[in-house]
Write a structure and sequence with these properties.
Chains A, B: GO terms for molecular function: phosphate:acyl-[acyl carrier protein] acyltransferase activity. Chains A, B: Catalyzes the reversible formation of acyl-phosphate (acyl-PO(4)) from acyl-[acyl-carrier-protein] (acyl-ACP). This enzyme utilizes acyl-ACP as fatty acyl donor, but not acyl-CoA. Chains A, B: One of its GO terms (biological process) is phospholipid biosynthetic process. Chains A, B: Belongs to the PlsX family. Chains A, B: It is found in: Cytoplasm. The structure is a homodimer. Chain A has about 375 residues and is an alpha/beta fold. Chain A has two domains: about 200 residues, Rossmann fold; about 160 residues, Isopropylmalate Dehydrogenase (3-Layer(aba) Sandwich). Chain A is about 45% helix and about 15% strand. The first copy, chain A, has 13 helices and eleven strands. In chain A, strands 3-2-1-4-11-10-5-6-9-7-8 form an eleven-stranded mixed beta sheet, sandwiched between helices. In chain A, a hairpin with a 5-residue loop joins β10 and β11. In chain A, α5 packs parallel to α6. Chain A is globular and about 60 Å long. The two termini of chain A are about 15 Å apart.
Chain lengths: ~375, ~375
């Protein structure tokens, strides 16, 4: 019921396998529109179904896009004179940013011309504009940013949220993160019954702050109707592990865990390069092991997991790393494409509505099989 | 003045280069007394100044110690019939644990027979007993656990605290962590003017929770008198970086960051082993690069940084990983030895007293040069 009502408001892939439209903010990233257009070309090449609405400086974009044969006839360029800088304050952008490519990119999702938006720009500004223009889903108190985390699980990644949309989260927010994260896991990682864990400083039930115990009870009670398995408290070491698929935490903790993990992986990678550069023998060994080392690099390459997704809004927005190159932008676009095509937004809205109904005591659990 | 008064209460290395006594809880670890005694032998072998008071099952310890020639005449075995299990609740151990090896190990520090205690046991119980028996330093609200973190800095490690003594910390607690952490950096890492940073979700001054801004102001104001350099907010990615030596955070966030970092390093290590096991060519390459790979492994080996130190008590307690092997136990003992020998405990007490005086508006800054 909720699902049907919502599906009218979001563009979906036509049943005949037609195109999926992604709205792209081409101006926000550290590397400018060249990297963004290169990333668009990379994903267009891999995916015949994809089309773009591209926002930014028209003359520049026209020139860059004309150079890419694979993009011919697949881009709708929309001129936006303003650019959101990395240093701009979110509140200022929300007040004065209506002429920017970021604003326009979100607008294409709001008007349902595009199935999802992608931006490499300023995270705070992108969240502020997304909340301002798309508005929160009914019943969502704090939207969240979800990221993918390399893991030992068969799917290769775990999902963690919130990684920085909001610096705090109460127990009911954490419950919503569990519902939204498991919906994302079903649609983004094809997991039928995602395993959800709540990040804490120990796995025993008595551990952690009072709001953690309350959240633990709320999430456990919602698991069956929410179509996920709740594994209870998990620790930092479980983020890359195989015991859980979705890790729920507040945005302060999640952001610090994300950056600690990235920093540690980078340090180990640097130490490895130094180790192999150490002697002629080890340089020769590195040459021999080239294929293996490249495979390793690919497995831990942060560009492959590029794309934080904003959850809890009326529309899908994917935040790419500011420093993303063509490969990174392409990964973020692929994620946006996959979510737009699967009708994720409608399913998420239905899932959140159901969660609210359950919290409010209304029995809609009998319908749970129909929503993913 | 404070320094002189305090120095009477703590055993120090005699001026003639005599022995330093470490109190060891031999029973608590996952691997039992065999690994602990092996670790004692390893550090005794490297360090002629070290002597031990060893707590646990007398018959078992006597047998194990007699097998190690290097330990002959250097161990004082004290029988303790009780063992604290990893699953024991801290509150129970505090009530009923007086016959345990952990309790006795702390007692040797309290009575000033030993300069520091080392245990591989249950962290929560060890902290509870340490607080109960050693008591908090005057003016310390929440003690902290500080850990070493592999980094790009010349000293090879950064210090992070609190990593799990308490799940919360107010702004004045974070100030004390800054004072205690920089004192540890001076005595444990030989840094004259440690750089201190406060862990947050961004480096801009407006970022983070309200208590972070207050702590930011407090720590900045205390830097000169506290003999450290304050670099302001740092992010998760700075933990293994070279911009800061001491990272201050609450125990909830610190514990999750620590375990996330450990888990990520472990994952990358596993991926690396899998990459090299992939083909005959890469196996051959691994053989050639053996020396380099071993050097790398040593650099990221968590056993080398084994030893969380409890700060803010009347005595030095080092917590070793529960799963520590001989190398890990030896690293923890080395840390305890270094701190006991440097008279760290007195200096820390003086530093905290000074911080309290500064907070209270008393001017003791003229003496700051004398305390490290």
């Amino acid at each position: 019921m909720t699902s049907d009502a919502a599906s009218n408001s979001t563009p979906r892939a036509p049943a005949d396998g037609g195109s999926v439209v992604i709205s792209v903010d081409a101006m926000g990233g550290d590397r400018g529109p060249t990297a963004v257009v290169a990333g668009m070309a990379e994903s267009a090449d891999k995916n015949p179904e994809i089309r773009f609405i591209v926002h930014g400086d028209e003359a520049q974009l026209d020139r860059l896009i004309k150079r890419r044969k694979v993009l011919a006839g697949r881009c709708d360029i929309r001129h936006a004179p303003g650019v959101v800088a990395m240093t701009d304050k979110p509140s200022q952008v929300a007040r004065k940013g209506a002429d920017t490519s970021m604003w326009a990119a979100i607008e294409s999702v709001r008007t349902a011309e595009a199935g999802a938006a992608v931006s490499c720009g300023n995270t705070g500004a992108l969240m502020a504009l997304s909340m301002l223009r798309l508005r929160k889903l009914p019943g969502v108190n704090r939207p969240a940013i979800a990221c993918l985390w390399p893991s030992r699980n068969p799917q290769g990644f775990n999902i963690m949220l919130d990684v920085g949309a909001d610096i705090r989260a109460d127990a009911p927010d954490l419950l919503q993160y569990a519902l939204m994260g498991s919906s994302y896991a079903r649609n983004g990682l094809d997991l039928e019954l995602p395993r959800v864990g709540l990040l804490n400083v120990g796995t025993e039930e008595h551990k952690g702050r009072a709001e953690m115990k309350l959240a633990n009870d709320l999430i456990a009670a919602a698991a069956e109707a929410g179509n996920f398995q709740y594994v209870g408290f998990v620790e930092g070491g479980d983020l890359p592990g195989s015991q859980v698929d979705v890790i729920v935490t507040d945005g302060f903790t999640g952001n610090i865990a994300l950056k600690t993990g990235e920093g540690t992986a980078k340090l180990v990678g640097e130490f490895m390069r130094e180790a192999f550069a150490n002697s002629i023998m080890s340089k020769f060994a590195a040459l021999l092991a080239m294929t293996s080392l490249k495979r390793l690099q690919k497995r831990i390459d942060p560009r492959r997991v590029n794309g934080g997704i904003f959850l809890g809004l009326n529309g899908t927005v994917v935040k790419s790393h500011g420093s993303a190159d063509a490969t990174g932008v392409s990964a973020a676009i692929k994620l946006a494409f996959q979510l737009a095509k699967s009708g994720f937004q409608d399913r998420l809205a239905a899932r959140v509505a159901q969660g609210n109904a359950v919290s409010a005591g209304t029995d809609v659990a009998t319908e749970s099989g129909a929503i993913s």
